[in-house]
Design goal:
Elements lengths: L1 H18 L3 E11 L2 H7 L2 H21 L2 E7 L2 E6 L4 H27 L9 E14 L8 E4 L1 H9 L9 E4 H4 L16 E3 L8 E4 L6
Parallel strand pairs: 4-6
Antiparallel strand pairs: 1-3, 1-4, 2-3, 4-5, 6-8, 7-8
Helix pairs in contact: 3-4
Length: 212
Amino acid sequence: MKENLEKDLVEIFEENTKHGLTEKEHVMLFADFGGSTSLVEKYDIFFSSWLLQSYLNCASKIILASEGTICAFEGDGIMGKFEGKNKATNAVKCGFKIQWAVENLIQPKINELFPNHRYTIHQVVGIDCSQLTEIKTNIWEYYDILWVGRAANYSAILTCINNPQYSTYITNEVYCKLTPELKGFESNELWTEIHEQGINSRVFRSNQTLKI
């Protein structure tokens, strides 16, 4: 195995050297279910499976309906990619819509189908914009695309901020690209700024929802 792995390292180097790597600006959105470890530890497998599947199903369809592309499923989270002139606005609206679905579709169904569980769902969406490079891992037959760049990492890191009162976190690079109606920072209607360690950017958070 050692020899094969060493050969792979050289082949990857030669392949990237030969064809080069292209960067393109994308907005990346990561939607993450909050508290999945506690969920599976405290509740039965049927409820846990239904809830995680329902959340990822809603998030996936909202990403696609918001002109996004699904890049990956990572545990109990999903990553979407947005391109084009309105990529930041589409991504933020998508985040607001996911939270609306959580509050107005999933939570009522939890209360209806599992009244004895008394469970309150929480999720977080992180969004960042940067130059990204698309590379193939050549490991899996499907979903073997890896996105290398800040936005792929920051969007996931933002979901680690633990504050149930807010559901959407964006970097300044995303905020600056929003349409005027989605800003509203000066009037404190939509966003509040926070300082987050490990993020080399201004960060804004919101508890806004958008009906689907």
